[in-house]
């Protein structure tokens, strides 16, 4: 018999013992598993174990228990228990795809009892159907065998219970009888579910889009009717012929967390037809053709053969820096660079002891001048000196008016923390000119070197986008860096931010706080800005809004507070690629000076990009508080698509030419709602990098 052969196979492979024989036993097992067995195995006292082999046996026994509990939870149709087990154990630990003694997998039981929620949970965890069911006939025969054997076992136990006198053995046989009656009903329900099911309908929708010049993306949705059986996989087929003859390729998708697939390795400029079919335990259903029926792999750059803007730029900058270094390598000032200490190689825990060295030159209070402070934080803690002060060093005690050009120069230097010593020595050569600007910048480099030396850390992090100024003439440049390591440093004080704020005694009045007091009050906001500025967008195509405002010494750009390294934006779609066909349509709109599409038109209503842009523009105008009718005078930037890597791209929406940049004193009638800020353009460019 097939069932007996499978059982023999299981015994030969030394598989796990059979699970509990009744629903009550399953519940008891699950309770034990939830409390007693769900532990960290490494927390046991290894001295109490005879050896590594015994410890491994104990671990395996827990995993066998968890596997048996999973089978019982699926049989009892207990979704909560199934989800709990999948959460606490990996598929390997659960033996998720190893058949039990009846030749069944957890997913088999779920789909044959038509329990869609449990089946989906198992599928998302990587569950498969039993490989023994190679055909509909083999599955039907196997289920019939299980039902017949269960019925035979019930009849045997019933006869024994009736004929035997009441005793302990009889009581045990009654328990076995109840368990087999329950299992008999389960197998009959599974057999009826299989016989009632039919192959699934076609997927309800299949969307085809151009992912690149050599790939297409297929997104599909579940059938409206699965015909009483859960869909367990999909098949994607593609061909150059609308009849799909010959077939160029196919792919079976059995990981159903996301219903999409990217067809790679296609020929640019060639039209491909795509269709998708669904599968359940009764077989494959009819295929559903994609919408649109075909697509041509392409990219907007093919329109005019344009190369990526940033191709080779990083290499060119490295080469240019190398040339500059070569020019200075024979200078006397450059000789000490050969003996530059490799502070990177020093452990952070050792170098941070400088914070507590009595001879450190960190400042406690500020006098009139220019200063640098470095904020290192981990979770809600902040690094302080031995006197519970944020590390501060002096840049220039005679400098009371920070020019924006000097500050922006400092932010650029922050991209070269590793080159500070070399930069400082090169500036020393030029200092003979007695330029005030060079002297100030040389002092900035000195202060950076001092901070790096005292902390023992070269990377001081990101510069906050504006310095802190107080009425006493103090100016504080702030750098921020998150420490993500879990290492415990010796002799280093990590102080909770709230404790530092409450314990510091202010030396200024509330009406005229010092720069340090202002820093402590706003430190959470600055840390939040630093964390948000490092967030990345999810893959997709976005519509960005470019709005500038000018001042006497700078131009600032409008950005959202939640993501200050990106322009104000909304997502158009998840596919970041603009195809050549879509770019040609955008160029046509720009050439005839068409207004931004805010209302549907008859000849473009079938253009997916047109419809997506309509929705995105309405959402973006509402976001920045601009009436929709004003958008008719706005323009889409048609010179290029802004690509940020391979996964994120932007189309830019521009106000009328006269309104792109608001001049000093010019009123902006449409002020964005809260949640926005303006950054100096150079700071934004550094963050966007």
Automatic annotation (TrEMBL):
InterPro entries: ANKFN1 (IPR039269), Ankyrin_rpt-contain_sf (IPR036770), FN3_dom (IPR003961), FN3_sf (IPR036116), Ig-like_fold (IPR013783). Residues 202-299 form the Fibronectin type-III domain. It holds the Pfam family fn3. GO terms for biological process: establishment of mitotic spindle orientation; regulation of establishment of bipolar cell polarity. SMART domains: FN3. One of its GO terms (cellular component) is spindle. PANTHER family: ANKYRIN REPEAT AND FIBRONECTIN TYPE-III DOMAIN-CONTAINING PROTEIN 1-LIKE, WIDE AWAKE. Residues 1-25 are annotated as: Disordered. This is ANKF1 protein.
């Amino acid at each position: 018999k097939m069932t007996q052969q499978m059982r023999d196979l299981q015994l030969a492979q030394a598989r796990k013992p059979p699970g509990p024989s009744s629903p009550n036993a399953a519940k008891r097992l699950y309770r034990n598993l939830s409390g007693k067995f769900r532990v960290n195995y490494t927390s046991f006292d290894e001295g109490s174990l005879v050896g590594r082999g015994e410890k491994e046996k104990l671990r395996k026994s827990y995993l066998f228990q968890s596997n048996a509990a999973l089978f019982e939870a699926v049989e009892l149709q207990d979704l909560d228990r199934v989800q709990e087990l999948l959460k606490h154990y990996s598929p390997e630990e659960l033996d998720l795809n190893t058949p039990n003694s009846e030749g069944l997998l957890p997913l088999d039981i779920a789909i044959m009892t038509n329990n869609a929620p449990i089946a989906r949970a198992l599928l998302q965890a990587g569950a498969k159907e039993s490989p023994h069911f190679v055909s509909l006939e083999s599955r039907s025969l196997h289920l019939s065998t299980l039902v017949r054997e269960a019925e035979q076992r019930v009849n045997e136990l019933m006869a024994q219970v009736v004929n035997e006198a009441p005793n302990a053995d009889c009581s045990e046989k009654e328990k076995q009888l109840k368990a087999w009656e329950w299992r008999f009903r389960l197998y009959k329900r599974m057999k009826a579910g299989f016989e009632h099911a039919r192959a699934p309908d076609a997927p309800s929708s299949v969307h085809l889009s151009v992912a690149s010049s050599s790939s297409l993306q297929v997104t599909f949705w579940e059938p409206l009717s699965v015909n009483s059986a859960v869909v367990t996989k999909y098949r994607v087929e593609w061909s150059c012929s609308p009849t799909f003859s010959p077939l160029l390729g196919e792919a079976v998708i059995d990981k159903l967390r996301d219903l999409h697939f990217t067809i790679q390795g296609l020929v640019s400029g060639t039209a491909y037809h795509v269709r998708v079919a669904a599968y359940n335990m009764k077989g494959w259903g009819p295929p559903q053709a994609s919408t649109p029926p075909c697509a041509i792999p392409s990219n907007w750059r093919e329109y005019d053969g344009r190369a990526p803007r940033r191709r080779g730029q990083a290499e060119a900058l490295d080469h240019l820096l190398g040339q500059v270094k070569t020019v200075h390598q024979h200078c006397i000032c450059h000789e000490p660079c050969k003996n530059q200490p490799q502070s990177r190689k020093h452990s952070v825990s050792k170098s941070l002891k400088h914070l507590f060295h009595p001879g450190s030159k960190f400042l406690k209070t500020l006098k009139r001048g220019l200063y640098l402070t470095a904020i290192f934080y981990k979770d809600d803690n902040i690094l302080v000196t031995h006197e519970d002060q944020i590390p501060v060093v002096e840049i220039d005690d005679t400098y009371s008016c920070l020019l924006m050009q000097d500050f922006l120069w400092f932010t650029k230097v922050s991209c070269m923390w590793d080159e500070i010593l070399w930069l400082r020595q090169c500036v020393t050569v030029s200092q003979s000119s007695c330029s005030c600007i060079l002297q100030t910048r040389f002092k900035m480099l000195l202060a950076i070197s001092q901070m790096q030396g005292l902390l023992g850390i070269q990377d001081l992090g990101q510069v906050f986008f504006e310095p802190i100024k107080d009425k006493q003439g103090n100016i504080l440049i702030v750098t921020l860096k998150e420490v993500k390591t879990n290492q415990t440093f010796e002799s280093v004080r990590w102080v909770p931010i709230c404790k530092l704020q409450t314990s510091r005694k202010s030396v200024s009045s509330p009406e005229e706080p010092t720069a340090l007091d202002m820093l402590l009050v706003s430190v959470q906001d600055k840390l939040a800005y630093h964390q948000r500025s490092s967030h990345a967008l999810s893959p997709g195509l976005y519509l960005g809004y470019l709005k500038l405002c000018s001042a006497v010494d700078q131009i600032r750009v409008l950005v959202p507070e939640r993501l200050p390294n990106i322009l104000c934006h909304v997502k158009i779609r998840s596919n970041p690629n603009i195809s050549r066909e879509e770019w040609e349509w955008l160029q046509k709109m720009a050439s005839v000076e068409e207004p931004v599409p805010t209302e549907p038109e008859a000849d473009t209503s079938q253009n997916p990009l047109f419809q997506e842009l309509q929705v995105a523009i309405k959402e973006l105008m509402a976001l920045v508080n601009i009436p929709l009718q004003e958008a008719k005078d706005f323009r889409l930037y048609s010179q290029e698509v802004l690509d940020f890597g391979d996964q994120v791209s932007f189309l830019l929406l521009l106000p009328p030419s006269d309104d792109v940049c608001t001049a000093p004193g010019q009123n902006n009638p449409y002020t964005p709602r809260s949640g926005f800020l303006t950054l100096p353009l150079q700071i934004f460019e550094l963050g966007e990098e």
